[in-house]
């Protein structure tokens, strides 16, 4: 065994060095206690303060393909618009032709063009591409009149004009009911009927609001609806099934709110199968001429509109002189708005005008490196169907009413490294009956590393941050906010200015007697919070990627992982999850050699045990987090193959021999249990497995288990043979091996001769049940 040594600095020497390099007056970097680093990785860590436990949610599950793939991966089929001047008809024809062929790219070259009617993209796998914002310029003349006042854009994705595509939320067939309470952050549900559901299926988890919840968060007039008829007043989550184990389904993203069937039934349903998948636009500027509706004398139109879209994007798109909305997402999911911008508005009045980015009833949305200048509301969101909404590295300036959560219980909002300047504010609070029954607009959220210049500008509360989450939720404000002032508004309904939170390191909550104390403030006024971006740090931990990137169409991939091709090496259970520390087999078109190829689970390096082209055997590191990380192979030429997997706390799999029987051993002789050497009632056997979950210590990643001390399984476990309980003498890692567990069992007395199913259950999760040979 190779030995390593290092020099250890004394505590006194370290203290002297720290003093020598700490320069007064220069801000020092600091970490949040909610996200400390350990061994080079960020860990979301619960903190007990002021009578409650606070914890950051994982906001990395947002955007196009939940951040696991580059934007705009569509088939290599390219159509170029050849015309000049007004290209409306030619562009629509090209989009329809590419869409009917199965998808591809429609390119608009550099130059200036006119579009005077709505362009619809109701097809899968279609990308509209210009040569770049400022290089491909689309002029929308005064004569442009949308047929739908708000639900339509110059580029309309997901539907045709005059129709709608919102049925995925409530029109799909009901599969069954979820019988247990779902905790916020859970990746799995148990349904009373999940037999027809398979990995890869899209499903909807839905619970309509109930009277007690509605009364707690709204009032007359315009009280919220609790009769199960209005989907906008429901908790509705679109998820893809990654694995199934019996009635338990494992999802690709967590559920962001506690759902209890005691309040109202929780339904599991399919979608209506009409969502449009994998569409978007990049690289152009859309500039509107002033226009007016003849009846209202107000402008009409939106730059880019999504409805009923799953996995969409905008990138490097600029909307100038917007009439009503710049970018609008309605009843859509998993969209990324990257490097997209709004410059100027035609109307700053009420009734839903002048919204730069309008996120309405949409979920798992990422806005990154995008900005709005000179609008009424630069960034705004609506309705409880909106959840897991991330603004990362965005900025707004010169607004008339500021950035906000606008209507009825948006939850899971992250304002991440958000910048405001030249008059703006951030507001998330109970708006009362404004906007016809807005009431509690924020379920829970985080403001991380915010920065503002403190200028009031045209906003009545400009230069301020006002946060008041639901009494059932909470908010966290960490670092920042530059020159902006922070107010704790958890003191009344509807909004009224609360207590100003003063700059101070460490934790604090509101101190007024009426304060709900459900907003945690950490390091207010303290610059240097690390990581600078919470979203990017969490995304890197889960996927190994740092940020949203753009794919080049027609770039080939030299290898890939088969669908369902990541399995427990012991049980080969394609329908079951995996666990940190598991031995795993990966099947696909993979490199024939491990030389130069890196394998990671999120940001954590996996150990390669075998590389063979069509099958690799790897060890998932014990440090990999529970959830839905990305398993990624990166070859020396930088081509990648990846697959989202499910890591549960435990996922036991018993190893089987070539004949399908359990791999077990007689401890006295070391002989394998076989037809000639069967197990006997009352005797001990050693059974080998993997994926038995956390341990009572921390084994080294990538190294064999020690002989002393032994690592024992930490979760409760039971065993059975032939349906009879088998006493467990020891369950833990096998010394000298990587990722291999062993269970020392006593074969039950009274077990008749024959072949009997052997099964272990760890942490409530059952293993496979291979046969074991038993003789009297």
Number of strands: 61
Could you report the average pLDDT, rounded to the nearest whole number? 92
Spatial gap, N to C terminus:
44 Å
Please report the number of helical segments.
5
Summarize the main sheet: 21 strands, mixed
- Give the uncertain stretches in residue-range form: 1-27
Shape, principal axes of CA atoms: globular
Structural class: mainly beta
Query: Helical percent range?
Result: under 10%
Strand content: 35-45%
Mind telling me the C-alpha Rg?
28 Å
Can you describe this structure?
The chain has 776 residues and is mainly β. The strands form nine sheets. The chain has a 21-stranded mixed beta sheet that branches. An eleven-stranded mixed beta sheet has the order 10-13-21-23-26-29-32-35-38-40-41. β57 and β58 (741-746) form a beta hairpin. The longest helix is centred in the first third of the chain and has 13 residues, at 88-100.
Question: Could you name the key traits of this structure?
Answer:
single chain, 776 residues, 21-stranded mixed beta sheet, eleven-stranded mixed beta sheet, 61 strands, disordered N terminus
What's the short version?
This protein has 776 residues and is mostly beta strands. It is 6% helix and 38% strand. It has 5 helices and 61 strands.
């Amino acid at each position: 065994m190779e030995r390593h040594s290092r020099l250890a600095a004394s505590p006194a020497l370290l203290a002297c060095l720290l003093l020598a390099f700490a320069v007064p007056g220069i801000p020092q970097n600091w970490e949040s206690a909610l996200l400390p680093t350990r061994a080079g990785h960020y860990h979301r860590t619960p903190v007990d303060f002021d009578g409650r436990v606070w914890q950051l949610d994982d906001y990395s599950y947002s955007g196009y393909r939940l951040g696991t793939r580059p934007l705009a991966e569509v088939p290599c089929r390219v159509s170029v618009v050849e015309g000049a001047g007004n290209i409306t008809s030619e562009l629509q024809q090209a989009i329809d032709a590419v869409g009917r062929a199965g998808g591809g790219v429609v390119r608009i070259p550099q130059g200036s063009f006119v579009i005077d009617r709505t362009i619809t993209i109701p097809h899968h796998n279609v990308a509209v591409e210009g040569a770049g914002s400022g290089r491909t310029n689309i002029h929308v003349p005064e004569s442009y009149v949308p047929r739908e006042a708000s639900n339509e854009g110059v580029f309309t994705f997901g539907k045709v004009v005059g129709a709608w595509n919102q049925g995925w939320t409530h029109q799909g067939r009901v599969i069954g009911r979820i019988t247990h309470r779902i905790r916020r952050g859970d990746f799995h549900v148990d349904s009373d009927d999940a037999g027809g559901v398979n990995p890869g299926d899209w499903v909807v988890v839905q619970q309509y609001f109930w009277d007690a919840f509605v009364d707690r968060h709204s009032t007359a007039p315009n009280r919220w609806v609790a009769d199960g008829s209005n989907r906008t007043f429901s908790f509705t989550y679109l998820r893809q099934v990654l694995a199934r184990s019996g009635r338990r389904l494992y999802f690709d993203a967590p559920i962001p709110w506690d759902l209890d069937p005691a309040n109202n039934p929780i339904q599991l349903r399919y979608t209506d199968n009409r969502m449009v998948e994998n569409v978007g636009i990049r690289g152009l500027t859309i500039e509107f001429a002033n226009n007016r509706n003849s009846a209202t004398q107000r402008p009409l139109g939106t730059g880019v509109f999504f409805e009923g879209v799953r996995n969409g994007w905008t990138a490097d798109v600029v909307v100038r002189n917007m009439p009503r909305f710049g970018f609008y997402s309605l009843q859509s999911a998993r969209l990324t708005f990257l490097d997209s911008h709004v410059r100027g508005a035609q109307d700053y009045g009420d009734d839903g005008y002048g919204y730069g980015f309008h996120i309405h009833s949409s979920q798992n949305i990422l806005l990154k490196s995008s900005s709005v200048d000179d609008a009424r509301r630069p960034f705004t969101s609506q309705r409880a169907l909106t959840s897991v909404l991330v603004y990362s590295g965005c900025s707004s300036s010169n607004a008339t009413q500021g950035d906000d959560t606008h209507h009825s219980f948006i939850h899971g909002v992250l304002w991440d490294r958000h910048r405001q300047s030249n008059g703006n504010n951030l507001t998330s609070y109970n708006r009362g009956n404004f906007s016809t029954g807005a009431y509690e607009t924020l379920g829970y959220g985080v403001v991380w590393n915010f920065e503002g210049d403190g200028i009031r500008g045209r906003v009545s509360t400009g230069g301020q941050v006002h946060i008041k989450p639901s009494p059932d939720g909470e908010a966290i404000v960490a670092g920042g906010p530059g020159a902006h002032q922070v107010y704790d508004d958890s003191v009344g309904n509807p909004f009224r200015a609360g207590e100003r939170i003063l700059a101070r390191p460490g934790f604090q909550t509101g101190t007024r007697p009426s304060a709900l104390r459900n907003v945690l403030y950490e390091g207010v006024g303290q610059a240097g919070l690390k990581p600078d971006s919470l979203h990017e740090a969490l995304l890197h931990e889960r996927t190994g990627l740092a940020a949203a990137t753009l794919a080049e169409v027609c770039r080939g991939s030299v290898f890939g992982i088969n669908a369902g091709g990541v399995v427990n090496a012991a049980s080969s259970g394609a329908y079951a999850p995996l666990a940190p520390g598991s031995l795993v087999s990966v099947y696909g078109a993979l490199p024939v050699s491990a030389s130069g190829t890196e394998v990671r689970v999120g940001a954590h390096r996996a150990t390669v045990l075998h590389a063979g082209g069509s099958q690799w055997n790897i060890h998932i590191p014990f440090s990999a987090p529970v959830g839905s990380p990305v398993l990624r192979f990166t070859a020396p030429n930088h081509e990648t193959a990846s697959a989202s997997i499910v890591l549960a706390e435990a996922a036991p799999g018993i190893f089987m021999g070539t004949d399908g029987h359990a791999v077990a051993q007689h401890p006295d002789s070391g002989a394998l249990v076989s037809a000639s050497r069967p197990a006997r009632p009352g005797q001990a056997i050693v059974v080998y497995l993997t994926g038995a979950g956390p341990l009572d210590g921390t084994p080294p990643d990538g190294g064999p288990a020690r002989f002393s001390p032994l690592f024992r399984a930490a979760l409760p476990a039971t065993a059975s043979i032939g349906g009879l309980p088998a006493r467990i003498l020891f369950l833990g890692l096998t010394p000298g091996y990587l990722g291999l567990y062993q269970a020392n069992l006593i074969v039950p007395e009274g077990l008749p001769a024959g072949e009997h199913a052997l099964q272990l259950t760890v942490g409530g999760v059952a293993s496979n049940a291979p046969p074991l040979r038993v003789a009297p």
